[in-house]
Specification:
alpha+beta; 3-stranded antiparallel beta sheet; 6-stranded mixed β-barrel; Cathepsin D, subunit A, domain 1; 13 strands
């Protein structure tokens, strides 16, 4: 079934990316922001894609203080920045995206306690919607419309 779905979606102009299923039940996805490789959690419930505030320099982000507060299932963060029009590449898909930056140390601390490498950020619903994403849970693949 997955091969049929894969072939069907490729014929419809989608590219695919393999997802890594973590012990925490999160998906890990690799992407490039402004030409720099990174590792991100896939979170369809996050309205915005995000980068850890300590990684702004790594990804060459030019950010400004944001008036918007971010929230997660565990807490609310009021210290956020916004970085506009960053070039992002996921597999063969590419586009421009605004990124929210905030302190993700609480997320990475949890990951490290479970012996999982730290992540650079979160791929959220903004990118998933923009790329007309289809998630295939059976094969752990993400399809993005080119």
């Amino acid at each position: 079934m997955s091969e049929t779905l894969n072939k069907f979606l490729k014929n419809k102009g989608y590219c695919s990316v393999n997802l890594i299923f973590l012990k925490t039940k999160h998906y890990l996805i690799k992407a490039k922001i402004n030409g720099i490789n990174g590792e991100f959690i896939l979170d369809s419930g996050a309205s915005n894609s995000c980068v850890c505030i300590t990684k702004e320099n790594k990804f060459k982000l030019e950010s400004k203080k944001s008036k918007i507060s971010a929230s997660s299932a565990t807490s609310e963060m009021s210290n956020t920045n916004i970085s506009k029009k960053n070039f992002i590449v996921v597999s063969e898909w590419e586009g421009l995206i605004d990124l929210v930056t905030f302190d993700m140390s609480h997320i990475n601390k949890t990951f490290n306690e479970k012996e999982i490498e730290s992540v650079d950020g979160i791929i959220g619903a903004d990118l998933l919607k923009k790329s007309k994403t289809i998630l295939d849970y059976k094969s752990n693949k993400l399809y993005l419309k080119l």
